[in-house]
């Protein structure tokens, strides 16, 4: 089914929470009166009281007798995590085994999925996709069974080209290859421009699947400082490229995983120009762009490419159909190499999901689904942030992404989040420790939380319990009490 629209008081509370977190409403500011809010928003007094009640529960505002509602003073939990200093040395990658060990259990429905990489399945339009699949397969012609080799189904390719063109990204048909999700696209692109032993520049922290790809291809990672709000540090990248040879640069400019950072629009052409100057291909991971809360998202780096050196990768897995595994690569001048690698590995992408998604995109409803999905994800992200502020130790810092479904937490330095995650997993709560997001496992007191399950009634208690475990570990010098899980 499609995502449920938030109630009017949920939406009002979400808007005011965002205003508080962005600084438009500051500690000590008086909120508009109930009457003013009713007039401005066209809602009833009951809706305003419910919204203000939610904000009180989250610890964001307080009622003062005969005076009104005020923004509460914010604790250090509201601060944004700091960008990490990283060494310029390239590091062999070996994180796959740890990630598999910790994340395998996120598929267990009994485990609260704060460590998952996907939003709740109930947020996707399952019934509409099923109807599209039925229509597409009934229209299937025998010649289509082989005509989609290797680049993908023509109807889906045209639908994607049209959508990108309307968004200001004119891809060309001859560079587009349909893949088994974005991960295959990214792996193929990485393999196309590197050889074993090469060094690849990555963000720090970096999505662990990127590190898995480097590990599989026997590549080395050199990490570049990445700001939790504005993304990759271009000055640091420039200094790195002047010092050493780098075969490729893998970047997620929009809603970077795990930080949620979005690189400002003005810096994206500078990123492309910098890498082109040094002759370094850019592998652009753009899987979360459709989840940006802002109505007008920044153009991807690919839109500024004039030399064919941006290998653009995306998919419908995070925003529409996770299990269908349909993604694509637009690899510029490296497209023929990517196509050959695709042919030598998986040959082609399964045809039925391609046909179904082409039908879904053609029959409309996708943008309406995205609006509903973004509203649900915004609600979940703000809820979890408020619960973290209420329950985690003083000194915890939280990112404030403008979209998506991840929060990155920096906890007090004494806390070992790998131990914290294992203790929580023993109680049926998954989370993703910071060590997964670095080749040298540097983020030892950091944590990524999935906030994409806004209607899961278990999430509030799970976040509260994680906070209790963190406080207990902190009280015992950064370790759980000997012989027992923290209480």
Kindly report how far apart the N and C termini lie: 39 Å
Determine the CATH superfamily of the largest domain. Answer: Type I PLP-dependent aspartate aminotransferase-like (Major domain)
Output the number of helix runs: 16
Major sheet description = 9 strands, mixed
Whole-number count of domains: 3
CATH uppermost class of the largest domain: Alpha Beta
What proportion strand? 5-15%
Shape: globular
Low-confidence stretches: 1-5, 481-487
Reported by name, the CATH topology of the largest domain is: Aspartate Aminotransferase, domain 2
* Portion in helices: 25-40%
What is the number of beta strands?
17
- Which second-level CATH architecture of the largest domain applies? 3-Layer(aba) Sandwich
What would you call the quaternary organization? Answer: single chain
Instruction: Let me know the average pLDDT.
Output: 89
What is the radius of gyration computed over CA atoms, rounded to a whole number of angstroms?
A: 23 Å
Structural class: alpha/beta
Describe this structure in words.
The protein is an alpha/beta fold and 487 residues long. The protein folds into 3 domains: 8-74, Orthogonal Bundle (Arc Repressor Mutant, subunit A); 77-84 and 94-122 and 370-475, Aspartate Aminotransferase, domain 1; 124-362, Type I PLP-dependent aspartate aminotransferase-like (Major domain) (Aspartate Aminotransferase, domain 2, 3-Layer(aba) Sandwich), CATH 3.40.640.10. Helix content is 39%, strand content 14%. It is built from 16 helices and 17 strands. Strands 3, 5, 6, 7, 8, 9, 10, 11 and 12 form a 9-stranded mixed β-sheet that branches. α2 (34-41) crosses α3 (45-57), α5 crosses α13 and α15 (417-426) crosses α16. The chain is globular, with a radius of gyration of 23 Å. The model is unreliable at 1-5 and 481-487 (pLDDT under 50).
């Amino acid at each position: 089914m499609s995502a449920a629209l938030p109630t009017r008081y949920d939406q009002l509370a979400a808007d005011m929470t965002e205003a508080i977190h962005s600084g438009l409403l500051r500690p000590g500011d008086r909120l508009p009166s109930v009457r003013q809010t009713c007039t401005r928003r066209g809602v009833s007094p009951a809706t305003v009281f419910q919204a203000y009640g939610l904000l009180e529960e989250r610890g964001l505002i307080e009622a003062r007798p005969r005076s009104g509602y005020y923004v509460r003073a914010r604790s250090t939990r509201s601060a944004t995590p700091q960008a990490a200093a990283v060494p310029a040395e390239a590091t062999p990658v070996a994180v796959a085994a740890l990630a598999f060990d910790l994340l395998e259990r996120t598929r267990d429905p009994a485990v609260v999925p704060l460590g998952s990489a996907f939003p709740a399945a109930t947020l996707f339009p399952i019934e509409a996709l099923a109807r599209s699949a039925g229509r597409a397969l009934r229209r299937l012609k025998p010649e289509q069974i082989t005509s989609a080799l290797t680049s993908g189904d023509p109807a889906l390719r045209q639908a994607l080209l049209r959508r990108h063109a309307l968004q200001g990204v004119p891809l060309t048909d001859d560079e587009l290859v349909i893949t088994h999700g974005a991960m295959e696209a990214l792996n193929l692109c990485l393999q196309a421009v590197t050889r074993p032993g090469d060094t690849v520049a990555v963000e720090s922290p970096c999505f662990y699947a990127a590190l898995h790809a480097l590990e599989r291809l026997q590549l080395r990672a050199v990490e570049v400082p990445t700001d939790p709000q504005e993304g990759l540090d271009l000055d640091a990248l420039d200094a790195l490229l002047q010092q050493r040879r780098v075969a490729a640069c893998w970047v997620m400019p929009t809603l970077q995983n795990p930080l949620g950072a979005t690189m400002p629009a003005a810096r994206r052409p500078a990123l492309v120009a910098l890498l082109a100057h040094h002759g370094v291909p850019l592998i652009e991971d753009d899987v979360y762009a459709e989840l940006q809360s802002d109505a007008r998202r920044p153009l991807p780096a690919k839109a500024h490419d004039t030399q064919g050196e941006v290998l653009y990768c995306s998919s419908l897995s995070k925003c529409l159909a996770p299990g269908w595994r349909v993604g694509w690569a637009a690899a510029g001048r490296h497209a023929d190499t990517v196509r050959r690698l695709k042919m030598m590995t998986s040959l082609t992408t399964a045809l039925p999901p391609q046909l179904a998604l082409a039908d879904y995109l053609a029959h409309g409803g996708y943008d309406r689904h995205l609006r509903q999905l973004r509203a649900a994800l915004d609600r979940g992200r703000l809820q979890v942030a408020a619960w973290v502020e209420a329950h985690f130790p003083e000194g915890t810092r939280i990112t404030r992404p403008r979209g998506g479904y991840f929060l990155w937490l920096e906890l007090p330095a004494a806390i070992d989040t790998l131990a914290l995650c294992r203790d929580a997993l023993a109680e049926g709560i998954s989370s993703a420790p910071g060590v997964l997001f670095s080749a040298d496992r540097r983020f030892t007191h950091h944590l990524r939380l999935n906030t994409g399950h806004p209607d899961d009634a278990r999430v509030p208690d799970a976040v509260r319990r994680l906070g209790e475990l963190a406080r207990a570990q902190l009280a015992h010098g950064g370790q759980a009490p000997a012989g027992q899980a923290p209480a």
